[in-house]
Design brief:
mainly alpha; 21 helices; about 75% helix
């Protein structure tokens, strides 16, 4: 499904009127012969018309519109319209673009925007390039690109979205003061418009909550996650907000409340990754409460949800396991687990993957 949403280099091309019509006709009628028969025209004549930029005679264009039930401007898209659609497709699915070849796709799409003087779409491609580098952990380059995307942009909706994303980037650079400043600006902008979609509001309050949880403002983080819940539309989003309310209680050592929220979040889990995170959080709390049997039970559940391919999450769970064993005084077994962990790190390069996986867990 994801691959269908991702454009290829071949998609970053402007299609002639004839190619656009040919695709629609074959999708609808199966072949040019069948379509030619439907509009009472020779296939040879049809092929000739499809090669011409103006699509041949007025009679052909009238018959084409009648058979398809659309106006010609709906059937044949201009170069600007095609470019805008390319940009929007990339914008909506930017997380799928991660390879070196993908950078070529993004660059070519931006070139089309420049060629057609589509200034808003140029800015959107700057943002797309920024997020591409962000997901590849080149955060300094990402911040520069998204800041340039915002230069001169007056569209409040895009400013809200991009300032929020920039705040996330500064968070990952551990520049919390700058991140907080941007989120406060987003708060102000949200109060000035009613045109922002629910997902954007959810992501803003969720990201702002993550920042507050990581800068010793857990009570404020709790309120922000509660706010994000008002705009959560999917089970995953709801579960993430509830889980992080639990984190805010854990940071304040309100362990029983944290357990309550972690267990509640499990009801919204749809994948093993989220389950492993919650089981691991519960294990850490029970270790803090010195209830080691329960801690071991939950960390083993966490480990059962991950495999060697998900090294970043496996590392977190294994470290929790080792800490629990050490707390129980089972030093030998703890050392054995630690050696297994080190061997896995030597077998595969984990650190960059750990960072990228961490970023994905915060946007979704």
């Amino acid at each position: 499904m994801e691959q269908m949403d991702k454009l290829t280099l071949n998609d970053i091309k402007i299609k002639s009127p004839g190619k656009q019509v040919k695709k629609i006709v074959i999708d609808r009628f199966g072949s040019l012969d069948d379509f030619a028969s439907e509009i009472e025209m020779e296939t040879k004549t049809l092929n000739q018309y499809l090669k011409e930029r103006k699509l041949g005679s007025d009679t052909f264009k009238i018959r084409l519109s009648m058979v398809l039930g659309k106006g010609l401007d709906e059937i044949v898209k201009s170069e600007k319209t095609q470019t805008k659609e390319i940009v929007q497709s990339i914008y909506d699915n930017i997380r799928l673009y991660k390879t070196d070849e993908d950078l070529t796709i993004l660059t070519k799409a931006k070139d089309l925007c420049v060629k057609n003087s589509l200034y808003l779409d140029i800015a959107k491609m700057q943002r797309n390039l920024a997020m591409y580098y962000f997901y590849r952990n080149q955060i300094d380059k990402a911040t520069g690109l998204i800041e340039s995307a915002m230069d001169g942009i007056k569209n409040t909706t895009y400013l809200i979205k991009w300032k929020s994303e920039l705040g996330l980037m500064y968070f990952y650079k551990c520049e919390y003061k700058e991140s907080r400043k941007l989120y406060m600006e987003v708060d102000k902008l949200l109060g000035e418009t009613n045109e922002v979609d629910e997902k954007t509001k959810y992501l803003h309050y969720y990201r702002y909550g993550i920042l507050q949880n990581n800068s010793n403002h857990s009570a404020l983080a709790e309120r922000l996650f509660e706010k994000s819940l008002e705009y959560a539309q999917t089970s995953i989003d709801k579960g993430d907000s509830i889980m992080n309310i639990g984190v805010s209680f854990e940071r304040r050592k309100k362990y029983r409340k944290a357990i309550e929220y972690y267990r509640k979040a499990l009801d919204f889990c749809e994948d093993d990754l989220h389950k492993s995170m919650l089981f691991n959080n519960l294990a850490e709390i029970y270790r803090a409460l010195e209830e080691y049997d329960k801690a071991l039970y939950f960390v083993k559940l966490a480990l059962s949800c991950v495999d060697d391919e998900n090294l970043s999450n496996l590392f977190i769970c294994c470290q929790t396991h080792v800490q629990i064993l050490m707390s129980k005084g089972e030093v030998d077994e703890a050392i054995n687990r630690l050696m297994e962990l080190i061997n896995k790190a030597e077998d595969k390069f984990v650190y960059k993957k750990f960072i990228i996986d961490g970023i994905n867990i915060i946007i979704e």
